[in-house]
Design goal:
Layout (H helix, E strand, L loop, with lengths): L18 H20 L5 H4 L3 E3 L2 E3 L1 H9 L2 H15 L3 H24 L9 H17 L4 H18 L4 H13 L4 H11 L9 H5 L12 H26 L2
Antiparallel strand pairs: 1-2
Helix pairs in contact: 1-3, 1-4, 1-11, 4-6, 4-8, 5-6, 5-11, 6-7, 6-8, 7-8, 8-9
């Protein structure tokens, strides 16, 4: 499916990535990030300084984590695209919530090796953002209700302590509000991400999006990308246990 695209800051000849390609990039970046967090962090050789730049010491661990920062903005962009083009918004939202619940146990073990952890996984952040999109559209002609709903969901994000926190929730709103202007989306989104500036590189791939769905078609492949999150965390938890007995 091809859609009319908002203007990109990149020439048309560089807009070569389908939605499926963006999904592959996002999950690869996430895998790199989590591999750094769960595996490289425990190897002294990979945490040793390779070089210093701008007053920061870089190791293989730091490099993996920094590369992985670009995953979240791409997932946020894909969520906005999914919201705009899904044929069943109720089912889309239910899937986000279902996999948020499924992912909680692997997420908890990733950080504490126990069944409990005070913070929640990123699917909850995406789910709250999705609810905000729904509220903004439903109350399109009632700005007071829009504000009430957004503030209520923002409050939930604070108390829920989902991954990326309230800043991640606000970033999702930025991606939605500026969905029709990719240049403004990139500039304002990058300014918001000042605290994690490495994530701003995600806007390069986002602006290479060509509006096509790509190879992810059908129920099976769609759910492969949902399942990737809890499954890859589970595998890394097991691998960490085998390698480091922790």
């Amino acid at each position: 499916m091809t859609t009319k695209l908002p203007a990109s800051f990149l020439p048309a000849k560089f807009q070569v990535l389908s939605g499926s390609a963006l999904k592959l990039i996002a999950i690869t970046l996430m895998l790199i990030d989590h591999t750094g967090l769960m595996i490289l962090y425990n190897y002294p050789a990979t945490t040793a300084t390779l070089f210093s730049f701008g007053g920061v010491d870089y190791s293989w661990y730091r490099i993996f984590r920094d590369i992985g920062r670009a995953a979240f903005p791409i997932f946020c962009f894909l969520l906005v695209e999914g919201f705009l083009h899904t044929h069943n918004r109720k089912k889309y939202g239910l899937n986000l919530f279902l996999f948020a619940c499924i992912s909680e146990i692997p997420w908890n073990f990733m950080f504490t090796n126990t069944w409990r952890y005070e913070k929640q996984n990123v699917f909850f952040t995406l789910f709250l953002g999705y609810l905000a999109f729904c509220a903004l559209e439903y109350f399109w002609d009632n700005q007071k209700m829009q504000l009430v709903c957004v503030l209520a969901l923002l409050t939930v994000s604070v108390f829920l302590k989902a991954d990326y926190g309230w800043r991640g929730f606000v970033f999702l709103l930025i991606m939605y509000w500026f969905r029709n202007d990719k240049t403004a989306q990139a500039i304002i989104g990058s300014c918001w991400l000042y605290y994690e500036w490495k994530a701003c590189f995600a806007f390069l791939s986002i602006n290479m999006y060509n509006g096509e769905r790509g190879f992810v078609k059908g129920r099976f492949l769609k759910y492969v990308f949902y399942w990737f999150y809890p499954v890859h965390i589970t595998i890394l938890v097991i691998l960490r246990k085998l390698l480091f007995h922790m």
